[in-house]
Design a protein that fits this description.
With 387 residues, this protein is an alpha+beta fold. The chain has two domains: 8-155, 2,3-Dihydroxybiphenyl 1,2-Dioxygenase, domain 1; 169-386, 2,3-Dihydroxybiphenyl 1,2-Dioxygenase, domain 1, CATH 3.10.180.10. Helix content is 21%, strand content 33%.
């Protein structure tokens, strides 16, 4: 029987020696430092915005000095040669039972069920290896814990609250993995079988056996998606698996695999309730966003689609925000005539430039106005634009 996972508790980022990103996440993206843990070799810093938490692991000594298992709590060491997002922590009810179940299914258990406690109570966690690249998953039960973050961490006093800074980020919306050829289907099957995720079709025309395919004529990408069983958006999780189908040349998926050194997490979607205000505020802080081609906003059908959704084409173009509409009754189908109904379900999204020096990990802001997909029409448009 597959597991039933709750919301992502945190996503871990690992950085090589002298490649600090925590300060950038705090100062530029305005995530608030909430807890810290330090050993002679590693500094772990938890930064939070809404319910979205990044656990940044910074090395304090060169890789040649080595690390031990006690240096990392609630995680394992992926021994990064470059910055990487390598762990997604899920809250679960029964860590011991789930770890036994996963082991019986052939999964590699990196950290056996372990209990930690402090004055705030106790937690139990284990870490299992994913079938995708360097990714691992921490399985955490903190139902008996009332402390500010997790045992072993010290709360950070006096950190700015972020209230009134115009940045409205509520939770992790989705996580996108990049897989090698043939790997997306393998990953999809593994997360369904082991973690109980359900298939999420990106388009009504998508055939489950084939997935959602972009491009053609030797250049393309396959997308497959899953959703956890939780009903509320803030407590659920969506996973997207991207695989290159290109036969001629390279694309952004191939570039990730080459520069990252294999499969891994390409980007994390952050849900916002006000993408226009949030984008403006982050730009003022120095966040660099991907600039779509100007032709995206000048196409007449896109102008009409944006206006029918109640938004202003010039404002979205100025900020670089993309909009994708779903007509009620035809959910998830991009490219539908947005003028057919005055009641539009749509989403808006914008992507940052890569966070690290390599063209690997980046962030996305996504503002859902009833739409459940990932902006498939925008994915197709951007795919063509960046090739």
């Amino acid at each position: 029987m597959a597991a039933s996972l709750s919301r992502p508790c945190f996503i871990s980022l690992h950085l090589p020696y002298r490649q600090g990103w925590a300060q950038h996440l705090a100062n530029t993206f305005r995530f608030q430092p909430v807890a810290v843990r330090e050993t002679p070799r590693v500094r772990q810093l938890a930064l939070q915005r809404g319910s979205a938490v990044f656990l940044v692991n910074e090395r304090r000594v060169p890789a040649s000095a080595g690390t031990s298992s006690c240096d990392f709590l609630y995680d394992v060491d992926p021994q990064p040669a470059l910055g990487t997002a390598s762990n997604v922590c899920f809250e679960v009810d029964d860590v011991l039972g789930l770890c036994k179940q996963l082991q019986s299914q052939g999964c590699s258990l990196l950290v056996p069920p372990t209990e930690l406690r402090d004055d705030g109570g106790a937690v139990t966690y284990g870490v299992v290896s994913s079938v995708v690249g360097n990714i691992s998953h921490t399985l955490l039960d903190r139902s008996r814990y009332q402390g500010p973050f997790l045992p072993g961490f010290q709360p950070i006093q006096g950190a700015p609250s972020g209230t009134g800074d115009g940045i409205e980020i509520t939770h992790f919306d989705h996580i996108t993995y990049v897989c090698p050829r043939g790997g997306a289907r393998t990953a999809l099957d593994w997360y369904q079988r082991c973690f109980g995720f359900h298939r999420f079709l990106l388009n009504p025309q998508e055939k489950p056996a084939e997935g959602y395919v972009l491009g053609g004529h030797g250049v393309g990408m396959l997308l497959l998606a899953l959703q956890s069983t939780q009903s509320t958006p803030a407590h659920s999780c969506k996973l997207v698996f991207a695989e290159s189908l290109s036969q001629n040349g390279t694309n952004q998926v191939d570039t990730f695999l080459e520069q990252h050194g294999g499969a891994g997490i390409q980007h994390v979607g952050l849900c916002t309730t006000d993408i226009i205000t949030t984008t403006r505020a982050l730009q003022q802080q120095g966040v660099r966003f991907f600039t779509p081609p100007t032709t995206y906003y000048s196409q007449q059908d896109k102008v009409e689609e944006i206006r029918a959704a109640g938004q202003h084409p010039h404002m979205l173009a100025e900020l670089g925000i993309l909009l994708d509409t779903t007509v009620p009754g035809d959910k998830g189908q991009p490219g539908t005539d947005a003028t057919e109904s005055p009641s539009q379900e749509y989403l808006m999204q914008i992507f940052t430039h890569p966070i690290f020096s390599e063209e690997t990990f980046f962030l996305e802001l996504i503002d859902r106005r009833g739409a459940l997909g990932f902006g498939e029409g925008n994915i197709r448009a951007l795919w063509k634009a960046v090739q």
